[in-house]
Amino acid sequence: MVAAWDLGAYISPEAAAIGLRAITSSWARHHVNVSACRAKTNGNYVNSIMALNSAVKAGFDETLMLDTEGYVAEASAANVFLLRDGVLHTPQTTSCLQGITRDSVIRLARDVMGVEVVERRITRDEVYTADEAFVTGTAAEILPLRELDGRHIGALVGAPSPSHPIDESSFTARLQALYRRVTRGELGDGLEGYAEWLTPVKA
């Protein structure tokens, strides 16, 4: 038996358009040996819920969690990416979930958009100085990150801000559009090979 229901929006349309405001959590992402980090189990989310609740109470949309050594792990329930000098970077999966959306984004960026993707350790200040940053997840899909700890992310023209929604020419916006095409079955123009990602369901 499979249960399905309308999930609704992960974040408000306004925040999705102008980008998320995030704060670095005082709660560290738990150590890789504390539990099975790659298992999507309820217990693993307690750590994330505590971090997100603190961020929301402080007036932010999202939180950035660091691992026990101070490197970027992930958002509360989403993976983190940053773009710098045309190269896409994302943390290794040592202390974050190996997300399906994360893997999809890596493949689309490399294979369709021709962008180099590097999986490595990332420091918090690298997010501050990134050209663009975004988070990915099943519910979030792809959402731009415009601010971390009060610092605006993105020196490029068209970086999202309260008075300037994300520019359609930005990498994040183009990746969003590509991802939505594939996940919604709009598979023309050389995207036919991604049909294997989809399973048609009759209502």
TrEMBL record:
<dbReference type="InterPro" id="IPR001544">
    <property type="entry name" value="Aminotrans_IV"/>
</dbReference>
<dbReference type="GO" id="GO:0046656">
    <property type="term" value="P:folic acid biosynthetic process"/>
</dbReference>
<dbReference type="InterPro" id="IPR018300">
    <property type="entry name" value="Aminotrans_IV_CS"/>
</dbReference>
<dbReference type="GO" id="GO:0052656">
    <property type="term" value="F:L-isoleucine-2-oxoglutarate transaminase activity"/>
</dbReference>
<comment type="pathway">
    <text>Cofactor biosynthesis; tetrahydrofolate biosynthesis; 4-aminobenzoate from chorismate: step 2/2.</text>
</comment>
<keyword id="KW-0289">Folate biosynthesis</keyword>
<dbReference type="GO" id="GO:0052654">
    <property type="term" value="F:L-leucine-2-oxoglutarate transaminase activity"/>
</dbReference>
<protein>
    <recommendedName>
        <fullName>Aminodeoxychorismate lyase</fullName>
        <ecNumber>2.6.1.42</ecNumber>
        <ecNumber>4.1.3.38</ecNumber>
    </recommendedName>
</protein>
<dbReference type="GO" id="GO:0006532">
    <property type="term" value="P:aspartate biosynthetic process"/>
</dbReference>
<dbReference type="InterPro" id="IPR050571">
    <property type="entry name" value="Class-IV_PLP-Dep_Aminotrnsfr"/>
</dbReference>
<keyword id="KW-0663">Pyridoxal phosphate</keyword>
<dbReference type="GO" id="GO:0009099">
    <property type="term" value="P:L-valine biosynthetic process"/>
</dbReference>
<dbReference type="GO" id="GO:0008696">
    <property type="term" value="F:4-amino-4-deoxychorismate lyase activity"/>
</dbReference>
<comment type="similarity">
    <text>Belongs to the class-IV pyridoxal-phosphate-dependent aminotransferase family.</text>
</comment>
<keyword id="KW-0032">Aminotransferase</keyword>
<dbReference type="Pfam" id="PF01063">
    <property type="entry name" value="Aminotran_4"/>
</dbReference>
<dbReference type="GO" id="GO:0009098">
    <property type="term" value="P:L-leucine biosynthetic process"/>
</dbReference>
<dbReference type="GO" id="GO:0005829">
    <property type="term" value="C:cytosol"/>
</dbReference>
<comment type="pathway">
    <text>Amino-acid biosynthesis; L-valine biosynthesis; L-valine from pyruvate: step 4/4.</text>
</comment>
<dbReference type="InterPro" id="IPR036038">
    <property type="entry name" value="Aminotransferase-like"/>
</dbReference>
<comment type="function">
    <text>Involved in the biosynthesis of p-aminobenzoate (PABA), a precursor of tetrahydrofolate. Converts 4-amino-4-deoxychorismate into 4-aminobenzoate (PABA) and pyruvate.</text>
</comment>
<dbReference type="InterPro" id="IPR043132">
    <property type="entry name" value="BCAT-like_C"/>
</dbReference>
<keyword id="KW-0808">Transferase</keyword>
<dbReference type="GO" id="GO:0052655">
    <property type="term" value="F:L-valine-2-oxoglutarate transaminase activity"/>
</dbReference>
